[in-house]
Amino acid sequence: MKILAMDTSNIALSVAVLDSERLLAMQTTNIKRNHSKQLMPIISQTVEEAGIKLADLDRIVVAEGPGSYTGLRIAVTTAKTLALTLGIELVGISSLEMLVPNATQDGLVVPFFDARNGNVFAGIYEKNGLAIKKVVEDQHINFLELLNKINELGRPVYFVTTQFKDFQQLVEDTLIVVAEHSSDLNSLPNAYALGLLGMNRQELENVYTFVPAYLRVTEAERNWKEKHPNDENKESYVRQIN
Q1: To 5 degrees, how large is the angle CA 86–CA 92–CA 98?
Q2: SS3 for 61?
Q3: How far is CA 6 from CA 2, 46, 103, in A?
Q4: Which domains does the chain have, with CATH numbers?
Q5: pTM higher than 0.85, yes or no?
Q6: What is the distance between the alpha carbons of residues 75 and 57, in angstroms, rounded to a whole number?
Q7: Which of 3-17, 27-41, 85-99 has the lowest mean pLDDT?
Q8: Shortest CA distance to 29 belongs to which of 49, 48, 47, 43?
Q9: What are the phi and psi torsion angles at 181 (to 5°)?
Q10: Where are the bilayer-spanning segments (predicted)?
């Protein structure tokens, strides 16, 4: 199975091409650039370096969120367009779950992104070699509340994030369990790991209905609801994971 995997959920951008478990080519950048201008050229370069053509692909795997609203839309829209155009399978993988394989040890792994105002996007996973199991669902949560959840579990944890230093003091002041964390280099998204996760995923996405997993209301939606308090449509306009 030939797979194209892509992630633009945060500042870093990562694209990989796999032939089943074998990595053919990968590019990862960590420069704050316009992903909408960079993604397609990098996909073209990576596919060319892999020695294949887009028409050879069997599956697209994309980091579905959480993360930057704009970044998520770029990769998800590109992935949907390619999957529809090529007539191939589409799989969405959590942007947080994608980071779990980066942990250098087994056990409880906590990937998180800064969501501002003391909040984070985070999940808690159990890593056992290549096997990954979700312990606490991905969510938008106050960081102190996340730490309390970790204390309740009562087990050592391993944080995977490029922003640990921004939360380190709160970790040291709050956690009663042993905590370690990855280096910034080992916290960057890895489209190869994303592709491996997506290769084994049985649930395929519908290219017409698939949307990013924002995990919180977008600013545009929040502003709309403030200006239209009597709007009868009470449902969120974005997919949120329960």
Answers
A1: 125
A2: strand
A3: 14, 11, 20
A4: 2-95+189-218 (3.30.420.40), 102-185 (3.30.420.40)
A5: yes
A6: 17
A7: 27-41
A8: 43
A9: -145, 155
A10: none
